[in-house]
Write a structure and sequence with these properties.
alpha+beta
Length: about 55
């Protein structure tokens, strides 16, 4: 007997519990309210764009 495989249920994060950080005109990331936006922006740029500020 074959069982139907169901996809895992993923819930989206609550945007109200996050703060937006604008990286450039096309990119916005969301971080925790108690996180440092400048540090998050710096880490994003270093990790994803491979640019050292």
């Amino acid at each position: 007997m074959m069982y139907e495989k169901k996809p895992p249920r993923l819930d989206s994060p609550d945007i109200k519990a996050l703060q937006p950080v604008v990286i450039d005109k096309n990119t916005t990331i969301y971080i925790a309210l108690d996180s440092d936006p400048e540090e998050a922006k710096k880490r994003y740029i270093e990790r994803h764009l491979h640019i050292k500020p």
